[in-house]
Amino acid sequence: MIITRKIEIRVHEQDTEQKKQYMQTLYDWRDAVRRAANLIVSHRFVQQNVREFMYLQDDVLERLDINNKPFVYKDKKTDGFKLAYKDSKDILKDEKGLSEQNVTYRLISSFLKNKVNSDIYTCLNQLVASSYKETAGNIAVGESSLRSYKNNIPIPFSARALSNLHKAEEEYTDTNTGEVKKVNRYYFNLFGIPFCCHLGQDRSNNESILQRCIDGELKVCSSSIAFEKKFDKKSEKKKQKLFLFLCVDIPVQKVALNSNKVLYAYLGINHPIVFCVNVVAKNVYDSGVKFFHIGTKEEFLYRRTQIQAAVQRCQANNKYAKGGHGRKRKCQAIERWHDKENNYVDTKLHTYSRELINLAIKHKCGKIVLVNQKEREDQAKEDHEKGDGLVLRNWSYFGLKTKIKYKADAVGIEVKELKESEIKDKTK
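The structure corresponding to this sequence follows.
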């Protein structure tokens, strides 16, 4: 199982001029990767829709075989749309190395040659091409638009590009107490640029992940680095920071589970998660069936509605905020509260999903079934269209479901979504 850890990094260089050169190189890479990614998407779109270009010359249209237009079908596995052709006739040149993916690779390699390391644009072509392939059907039916990449695009690289990952024990003086303390710092090189990992309070236990990568327990996979604007407490402004998105292959934990034992969970409103073991009831509140609750409506919404009220107060008083640098300067407080709300919801969803997985392990359930989850999401959308946006706005069904699935994969628990009509009632 591959997981991604977000770690703040800084260029480790004492010479100020050299450090500026390294940072400028990273900015140049980011700009080049952004332009190349948009170029790949544009050419892939043209390759699949060139038959619709009615303004081309007649002899060109004949060669394109305009009658062989793509058709869209719905994939039952992914519940998305796929794009296909009635026959396999290719509109591209019939030469070696000119497939759809190789064409874009050759295109960006000529564009980025001597500007970016070849390892970067090789990984970029694979990522962007696979991402477009997944959404091509949805684009054709109008479910999504053509993706546009901005300056926050990660700079991808393969595992072999990250070198010399090591730990060093260093001493520093605490500015508050004046005491000399020791701390472990982690360093690595990327295409000749030295970096230092800034772990901070390390609530995500990233130090343990880095140490296990050094010891060889975990395998480092293709990763990326990206620039993001984050709020800085000292300056009370948003600053451009650099982050490493480290992808590692985590082995699935061996937990004693019973494959015949099932935990049925309902993601509801009054309680974020309601579950029972080996019992399926037609009504969640049926008497005679013992249900367990994780979280409450009041506990989840109390803090979130407080944050939303703070956002509304900031919006109402925003006209009195000091200007001078346009909208960004005046909306700083609103953006900070939005970040607080996102962090609060993300923390709560992690807490609820972790508790559910721990209870599944405790009861040795080898499978988790989310009952009527699709119907609840559809109902929330219908209520939102009617003017009641409480559920869709405040209950992150999709985020909770995603976190349950990836935590279950880490311990070998299977997760399914079923309707109550598709499940036969069972008893312990």
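The chain has eleven helices and 15 strands.
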